[in-house]
Amino acid sequence: ELLQDFLAESAENLESAGAQIVAFERDPADARLIADIFRFVHTVKGTCGFLGLARLARVAHAAESALGRLRDGAR
User: Fold this and answer.
1) How many angstroms separate the CA atoms of 49 and 71, rounded?
2) Does pLDDT of 33 surpass 90?
3) What is the pLDDT of residue 27?
4) From CA 66, how far away is CA 10, in angstroms rounded?
5) What is the largest CA-CA distance in the chain?
6) What CA–CA distance (Å, rounded) separates 6 from 17?
7) Residues 8, 12, 13: CA angle, nearest 5 degrees
8) Helices (DSSP H) in 27-73: which residue ranges?
9) pTM beyond cutoff 0.90
10) Which of 14, 28, 45, 65 falls 20 to 30 Å from 59 in CA-CA distance?
11) What angle do the packed helices 31-51 and 54-71 form, to 10 degrees?
12) CA torsion, points 50, 59, 13, 29, in degrees to nearest 10?
């Protein structure tokens, strides 16, 4: 049941994150967008660890690292 809830919630949030990524491409100065996307990926990473989804956790960790660099000003 936890896995199904995680998948459903993540699917909804992934759609939102996709729209935020497009908005960030248009306005890379909007720090709020990258922060929101980072929080989503961070939550996915943590939940994957809790659920034992090691491969997805590694992907989320890599995405979190890349987003962290963007958040810190890298292009």
Assistant:
1) 23
2) yes
3) 93
4) 19
5) 40
6) 16
7) 115
8) 31-51, 54-71
9) no
10) 28
11) 160
12) 130
pLDDT for res 75 = 74
**Could you tell me the pLDDT band of residue 73, with boundaries at 50, 70 and 90?**
confident
The identity of residue 73, as a single letter, is G
Task: Quote the CA–CA distance of 19 and 57 in Å, as a whole number.
Answer: 22
Of 47, 40, 45, the C-alpha closest to 5 is 47
Q: Which residue reads 């100065």 in tokens?
A: 29
DSSP 42: H
Determine contact, residues 42/64, Cβ cutoff 8 Å: yes
CB atoms within 10 A of CB 53: 17
Tokens found for residue 56: 């997805």
